[in-house]
């Protein structure tokens, strides 16, 4: 069972459950003050505006009681995926390096973007080939990925960058970078392949009626 953690201010938890169940997973929302169900086989930290992004996106949710259980689950090999606000929570909680901060435009942005698959040899990207271009929506005001030089070099050396923002043809350019993220980074792995965060929303591109199913491959990573 995939536990979709619901914080105060989450607004993509129902979307996530719907997308996961459509893929054949058993999924349910779990309130952040409650324990994770014993049958938990995966954890998703969904998008939204936990605690109204007070202080900064994800900062308060990262200190919620459930995050201790999430860390313990990671130690047991249970996969964890953070999306949008969930990606901010993941970075703030130290599950992944770097930070997501205010967009270069200093404005909230809601649009479709293209991503190039940088590493297809992970549970989250095995449905694609390296270099594939997929289209997902974004909806964030603090989506700019930042990390120091040493951290960025480590991500590249360890092949932990999953996706970069690109144009329709797969070219990674400044113009294709919607928020100013360093190196056009849109998604990364944590210390282990079981943990990943990304700013675009795969659950919003998972059903045919939404106009795209490009995100299904990412969510299928819960299968291993």
UniProtKB/TrEMBL annotation:
Question: HAMAP family recorded for this chain?
Answer: PurQ
Pfam families, A to Z = GATase_5
Described function: Part of the phosphoribosylformylglycinamidine synthase complex involved in the purines biosynthetic pathway. Catalyzes the ATP-dependent conversion of formylglycinamide ribonucleotide (FGAR) and glutamine to yield formylglycinamidine ribonucleotide (FGAM) and glutamate. The FGAM synthase complex is composed of three subunits. PurQ produces an ammonia molecule by converting glutamine to glutamate. PurL transfers the ammonia molecule to FGAR to form FGAM in an ATP-dependent manner.
Q: Which InterPro entries match?
A: Class_I_gatase-like (IPR029062), PRibForGlyAmidine_synth_PurQ (IPR010075)
List, alphabetically, the SMART domains matched. GATase_5 (SM01211)
From the UniProt annotation, give the residues forming the signal peptide: none
User: Mind listing the UniProt keywords for this protein, alphabetically?
Assistant: ATP-binding, Cytoplasm, Glutamine amidotransferase, Hydrolase, Ligase, Nucleotide-binding, Purine biosynthesis
SUPFAM superfamilies named in the record:
Class I glutamine amidotransferase-like (SSF52317)
Sorted alphabetically, the Gene Ontology BP terms of this entry are:
'de novo' IMP biosynthetic process
Q: Does the keyword Nucleotide-binding apply?
A: yes
This entry's Enzyme Commission designation comes to: 6.3.5.3, 3.5.1.2
Pathway the protein acts in: Purine metabolism; IMP biosynthesis via de novo pathway; 5-amino-1-(5-phospho-D-ribosyl)imidazole from N(2)-formyl-N(1)-(5-phospho-D-ribosyl)glycinamide: step 1/2
Protein name per Swiss-Prot or TrEMBL: Phosphoribosylformylglycinamidine synthase subunit PurQ
- Its main subcellular localisation, reduced to a broad class, is cytoplasm
The record's active-site residues are: 84, 201, 203
Cross-referenced CDD domains: GATase1_FGAR_AT
Q: Which PANTHER family match?
A: PHOSPHORIBOSYLFORMYLGLYCINAMIDINE SYNTHASE SUBUNIT PURQ
Q: Which reaction does it catalyse?
A: N(2)-formyl-N(1)-(5-phospho-beta-D-ribosyl)glycinamide + L-glutamine + ATP + H2O = 2-formamido-N(1)-(5-O-phospho-beta-D-ribosyl)acetamidine + L-glutamate + ADP + phosphate + H(+); L-glutamine + H2O = L-glutamate + NH4(+)
* Superkingdom in the source lineage: Archaea
């Amino acid at each position: 069972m995939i536990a979709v953690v619901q914080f105060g201010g989450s607004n993509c938890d129902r979307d996530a459950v719907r997308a996961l169940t459509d893929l054949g997973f058993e999924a349910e929302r779990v309130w952040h003050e409650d324990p994770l169900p014993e049958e938990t086989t995966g954890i998703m930290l969904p998008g939204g505006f936990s605690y109204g992004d007070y202080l900064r996106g994800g900062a308060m949710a990262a200190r919620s009681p459930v995050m201790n259980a999430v860390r313990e689950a990671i130690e047991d090999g249970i996969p964890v995926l953070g999306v949008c606000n969930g990606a901010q929570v993941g970075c703030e909680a130290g599950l992944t390096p770097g930070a997501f901060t205010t967009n270069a435009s200093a404005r909230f942005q809601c649009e479709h973007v293209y991503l190039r698959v940088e590493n297809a040899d992970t549970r989250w990207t095995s449905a694609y080939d390296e270099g594939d271009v997929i289209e997902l929506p974004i909806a964030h005001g603090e989506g700019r990925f930042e990390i120091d030089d040493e951290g960025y070099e480590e991500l590249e050396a360890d092949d932990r960058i999953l996706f970069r923002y690109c144009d329709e043809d797969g070219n990674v350019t400044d113009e294709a970078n919607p928020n100013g993220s360093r190196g056009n980074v849109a998604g990364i792995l944590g210390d282990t392949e079981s943990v990943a965060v990304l700013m675009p929303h795969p659950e919003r591109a998972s059903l045919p009626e939404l106009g795209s199913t490009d995100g299904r491959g990412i969510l299928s990573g819960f299968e291993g």
